[in-house]
Amino acid sequence: MGQFLNMIDAAPAAEKWPLVRRLMMRERETFFAEMRAERPVLELPDNIAFITRYADCTMVLQRWHDFGVDLYKPKQGDYFMAQDDTADHWRDKSIMKSILDFEDLPELRSFVGQEAARILRDARGAIDAPQQLTRMVPCKLVQERFGFTGSDPRKLITWSYWNQTDAFHNQPFDRDVISDPDHVVAERKKAGIHLALYLGRVMIARWLQLKLHRNRNDSVTRLMRLSASKGVKFPLKKVLFNAGGLLIGTIETTSVTVNNALDELLRRPDMLARARAAAANPDHTEFDGYVVEALRFNPAFPYFFRTCHTPTQLAGGTPHAVTVQPGTTVIACTHSAMFDGEAYADATVFDPRRTMYQTFTLGYGHHECLGRAIATIMIPEIVRQLLLLPNLRAEGSVVYQYGVPEHFPLRWDA
């Protein structure tokens, strides 16, 4: 048996999952390799199963009838992402994808690049990335393109932050890292009230503009027009929920992903030099590959969690097969899955030729990221603007709070 399994087996029950979490974050490749080889389904106290193989992770994330998003429900209520195979999920997600026009991607990338460049130009050689850049750029996109016009950016960031924190970092199995879970819940509820009140005012303004035929071309207006048409079942309550989801899903996830990718590249001088050279190329395809691969090594979400509904065998066909039972929380460690040699050629090699669609960076299966298309241009473009700066360097480590970057001091030659 390997060294990590010996440590886990010897640990007291209450310490096993916290230990696994630490190993997952600090040891990465060697820990994952041992788990995949010796215990790909690690059964832990509190009815948790930690899985690490590509085949098992993809099966769990694909089979939503057997593995559901039950733990999202207390955090997200009736929002479609807290549902699996329901009419609301299929209809709402289809509507939201359709109003995020795919053909606008080149224009959106230009918008993001210009805004990031402006912020960096004004920073004059030093910036705290999460506080001044990586939240502010997606916030500007939400304001100008999604319809949150005239809003206070700090409030938008706060509303996104607490909703993301509660949904993804304040689950029952997070008690080892969240000292006051009730505080997080209270902040999320408060943020939800303020967000709803703000969106209510925006929706009234958009309704008046529609009546006066002064149409805007932002996401909230598109949703209002659709609701008013009665062409599909999409009442005003749905407009409010789904417009709020655009905000919540954009700011914080973009920030953590950009910071993780940049941090990984700055730790790899050889790849950093190549990425900088590629950043100056008008064709961004090559450059984007460096960001994608950096996120394979340092993902924003190293795992996704599901609740088992149907007795299901995992690690089937191996000597380590285990049948998980209904009610089990299955933690699908997609970070490990992206280093599984059965699915990835030269899995431990940093290869910028890989694409976003070969990774779990934006989720997988039924609950893949709604904003996948926008994320694939916004995240690398913000990183690209940073790498265009002369002699960009980190002045300290990324400081995380509640699982997301709060501080990352950067400097360059202004």
Automatic annotation (TrEMBL):
Alphabetized InterPro entries for the sequence: Cyt_P450, Cyt_P450_sf
SUPFAM superfamilies the record matches: Cytochrome P450
Top-rank taxon: Bacteria
GO molecular function: heme binding; iron ion binding; monooxygenase activity; oxidoreductase activity, acting on paired donors, with incorporation or reduction of molecular oxygen
Family, as annotated: Belongs to the cytochrome P450 family.
Annotated protein name in UniProt: Cytochrome P450
